Amino acid sequence: MGPSLMRRPPKYVHGYVDRHGRARFYFRRAGHKKVPLPGLPWSPQFMTAYEAAVSEAPRVEIGAARIKPGTVAAAVAGYFGSAGFSNHAESTRRTRRQILERFRAEHGDKSISGLGRNHVERLLAGKTPSAALNFLGALRALMRHAVLVGLRADDPTTGVRAPKFKSTGFYTWTEADIAAFETRHPIGSRARLALALLLYTAQRRADVIEIGRQHVRDGLLHVRQSKTGRSLAIPLHPELRTVLEATPAEHLTFLTTRGGKPFHPDSFTHWFKRKCCEAGLPREASVHGLRKAACRRLAELGCSANVIASISGHSTLREVSRYTAAADQVRLARQGIEALTRTKIG
Q1: Mean pLDDT in the chain?
Q2: With CB atoms 3.0 to 4.6 Å apart as the test, which of 105, 203, 303, 328 could cross-link to 307 if both were Cys?
Q3: How far apart are CA 77 and CA 142, in angstroms?
């Protein structure tokens, strides 16, 4: 028996041996259609088909038959099964599902057509600015679906102003933070591998945990971003190449749990946070802060917003321009002081 069959198949996979002695595997999950999976568990073609089946929207929201038509609960169930919901990135679907499940639990028996703008504003009033922004975004998506399928004639969120919310975003790692992490976690450790993949690709966590040997070809790392759908080919940084060469190629992904399984995005975040604490980094240091640090480094080296986006894959240049603007400010300020003092600074 081959090594692929010796490992336990992924979740929702069922298999049997047919009358010809051939092993057959299917994705079977309540509410989803049954999907045949090619090859053996954990092989590249198997996992490609498996990931597609997992991400596909359910045919019928579980429990939908017991939901009274025209209610908030029915609208939420219908939205979860819609193309509009399934077309979003996995991280967006997860966030909106959490928000709308809570909304359904509290107001599921009420009529969706009876929800007015005054109700929306009262719902927002009891939340923090960041929570209110997320809730309003999820509710607007639900209302657009309700109008589209004829559950109501108008969108009660129209004209509702999002609360003002100022945030500096995720903490951007400094060079001192990076050095401290590298000192605590040497090459050959899983933590150092994670740092190198995040820092030298400038990719999001959901994409970094999917990267494996099969994505490295001709000195380029080929990535298809889960959030934007954009395909990138990123030259391997020498430091990243060194770290990868010190990593055993035993699994489909470079980063795995101690049990050899791929990371879930949330579990990866918690695991990496512990590694940051072990290195004595500030409490604010996180996975996403390394993506920002990668962009900061490029900006400080004089790279344009377009160059940075060609690596990071940002869909717009607005956020990337913040890094270049900050770098330009420091550069110009240094030139100004040097002109005043006639002394080279830095």
Answers
A1: 85
A2: 303
A3: 10
| Domain presence at residue 26 | yes
| Cα dihedral value 75, 80, 82, 85, nearest 10 | 120
> 215-267: per-residue pLDDT in tens?
999 999 999 998 888 899 999 999 999 999 988 777 889 999 988 888 988 89
Query: Would 70 be classed as within a structural domain?
Result: yes
8 A C-beta contact, residue 293 and residue 173: yes
Residue 178 CA, distance from chain mean position: 22
Percent of the chain with pLDDT over 70: 91
Q: Please tell me the least confidently modeled range out of 64-68, 108-112, 208-212, 298-302.
A: 64-68
The one-letter amino acid code at 173 reads W
Q: Which amino acid is at 199?
A: L
Q: At what angle do helices 117-125 and 129-148 cross, to 10 degrees?
A: 150
pTM above threshold 0.70: no
**Domain residue limits at 118:** 64-148
Beta-strand runs (E) in the chain: 13-17, 23-27, 35-37, 216-217, 220-224, 231-235
What does 294-329 look like in DSSP terms, one character per residue? HHHHHHHTT--HHHHHHHH--SSSHHHHHHHHHHHH
Residues 227 and 171: beta-carbon distance below 8 Å: no
Asked whether the predicted pLDDT for residue 3 surpasses 50, the reply is no
Mean pLDDT value of segment 274-300: 91
Radius of gyration, alpha carbons of the chain: 24
33 CB contacts (<8 Å, ≥6 apart)?
56, 59
- Which amino acid, residue 249? A
For 335, the 3-state DSSP assignment is helix
Average pLDDT over residues 331-339: 78
pLDDT of residue 278: 95
Looking at the structure, do residues 292 and 144 belong to the same domain, yes or no? no
C-alpha–C-alpha distance, residues 294 and 310, integer Å: 13
Residues 214 and 275 in one domain: yes
